[in-house]
Every structure is written in structure tokens, then in C-alpha cells.
Amino acid sequence: MDGIDYSLFSGFRLLDVIDIILVAIIIYYIYSLIRGTIAVNILIGVALFYGVYIVVKQMHMRLLTEIFGGFISVGSIALIVVFQQEIRRFLLHVGKNISMKRKKVFWSFLGNKKAIQKDLTEDLKPIVEACRSMSRTRTGALLVFSKYFDEEYYQSSGEYIDAHISKRLIESIFHKNSPLHDGAVVIVDFKIMTASCVLPLSDSDDLPLQFGLRHRAAIGVTEISDAIAVIVSEETGEISFAKDGNVNMNVSPEELEQLLKDEL
Question: What is the pTM of this model?
């Protein structure tokens, strides 16, 4: 009577609505991971390429259709190669969220959160004090906290140390006359595993121009792994905290301690 054909919605189920919502969430989540990076431009190029393929196919241009079709047939493999870092980041984010929820449930049953916080405070004290001291003296530093030690990834580009953390050790590593002051220190389970580590730089287009190699390396390593990073600026002495490709600037030592407690 009102001119609307309700037969179109007759086969529509609640599961279909849930399906659409889940797909929308996945698309948004993937976009949030690649936003501001060169991967967006690559994705636009792939979309345009596929659009041209559809056009030439509809126009029955056989030669171009065969050429473009050959690329499309291996497109899934090419996309995996091109977007391997983004796929790695997506899977790491998913696994990290599940792992964090499991740990929260575990410690809630254990019920000794105060003791854990006390132990963390003692373990973090030399790190926070070293960052405070290097901030005052404007000593450039980059510390990466990883949940596991990837020997092939970290040790191949740095000097293997495997030493317990101390304030003096951290300061001596980043002293300007030290042969190890360039690069990053990788910390796993509150032990310094490697120093002078070379990290991948972020390719994000949204980074401020004042960001130097330390900030770009900190962002880069947190983009492709579940590690977190602490940066001390050599120019300003400012302490920064990097996680998931984002940076908190001008962090006080007290704020840094709390951030590390929350993550570690």
C-alpha cells in the first residue's frame, strides 16, 4: 500500500545484522592500523587497479582483461607480501588483547595485586631513576621493553649483554662516549638483553617534523610488535612513551613509572 516491497527483507535474519556489524568492526580496526601509513596509498592503488580490471572486462577488451586478470589471480599472495607488517600488527593486537584479559582473570583469582605492584616498583626504580638522570643531563636514550627475546630480530643488530638492570649500567650505555650509545637497549623480564640495537623506522606520514631517529625507531618497533618503548630526547631532555605506534610526549618520571606498571 505504501509502495515499499517488504519481500526484500523477508529473508533478513538477526544473524545477518550481526554479520554486517562484525565485518564493519573488522574493516574499521584494519583501517585504524594502517591509517597514516604508506599502506593506505598502496590500498588505494590496489582498489584503482581492480576498478580498471572490472571496466576493461565489461568492455570485452580481451587483451587487457587477460593481462589484468593475471595480476588479479595472484593478488592474494601479493597482498600478503605487501601488507605483511600490517597483518603482523593486526594479529599481534588480537593476541595481545586476549593475553591481557587472561592475565587479568588469573591475577584476580590469585588476589595478591599489592605484592605484585610492590615488586614492580622495586624493579622499575633503576629504570625510572636512570631516565630522570638522563633527562636532566639531556642524554639521548631509547629503551625497548619486549615480552620475549627474539634473537634473530634483536641480537643480529646489537651487542648481546644479558645483564641485570641498574641505574649506572643504563647511564653508562647511553653516555655519549660509549660505543653502545647509538641504537636501542632491549629489556626482557627486567634484564638488559642487547644494546646498540638497530630498529625499523616508522613509515607513518603523520609524524611531527621534530621527531628524530629515536622517536621514529620507537614508533616503528611498537607498530610491528607488542613491545613498548621509552625515549629520552637529546635535544630537550623530554621523556616520551611509545605504545602501538602512538607516543605520549613530555612524560614525567612519576607518570613513566605508572605507565610501565600498567604495561609490565
Answer: 0.62
